[in-house]
Amino acid sequence: YLLVFDFDETIVDENSDDSVVGAAPGGALPAPLQQSLNSGSYNEYMQRVLAFLGDQGLRVGDFKAIYEKIPLSPGMPELFQFLSKNHELFEIILISDANMFGIEAKLRAAGVHSLFRKIFSNPSSFDKRGYLTLGPYHSHKCLDCPANMCKRKILTEYLAERAQEEVEFERVFYVGDGANDFCPSVTLTSADVAFPRKGYPMHRMTQETEQKQPGAFQATVVPWESATEVAQYLQELLKK
Predict the structure, then answer these.
(1) What Gene3D superfamilies does the annotation carry (predicted)?
(2) What CATH number is given for 2-12+71-122+135-239 in this structure?
(3) Does residue 55 carry a catalytic annotation?
(4) Does 8 qualify as catalytic in the annotation?
């Protein structure tokens, strides 16, 4: 089985970009910087936010502490426990529009980094000044996704690459919450399962698609409030 996770508001219970913004003096960004979100891409906006936080003196240790403190979503520790016990049955990857440094810091702190075969996220590193810098992941032609990342493209290419390595998955499971998680889940087949977080954009979009074009969304949809529901579903499946 291939299990695909999103990060923000899926593995962790916050948007990690918002957690970082909270570290600005007074917990808020200056108004001009906030307003610059409307011009250009979100990825470019976050590049400006990180530069501003660098100007305020935030360095590696500060960012590491912020990411490590972000709470896991409800039931996520139990789901990871289940996956560690059954790790030989699942190949696990993470596709996220956050940034590599933040994700790896959190996964290591939670003790689950080794569960992931591969992490796809925007490249981030510390420059000579000690500022955290961010780049776009790739470019693509998808009209539904932000310019820096289409998760459908990443997932499709990953499956193709694994097929070349003669790894075929019996099923794909996708755990996410956002509109950018809906895009890849559209490519899932009737053997696969989409786990959208209840009440979040991915969940609403699967419901709307089902209403407008019944049968267009092929995967089984299993909404979750606690990740223990995902663990229970997978456990039942293994019993069969």
Answers:
(1) HAD superfamily/HAD-like (3.40.50.1000)
(2) 3.40.50.1000
(3) no
(4) yes
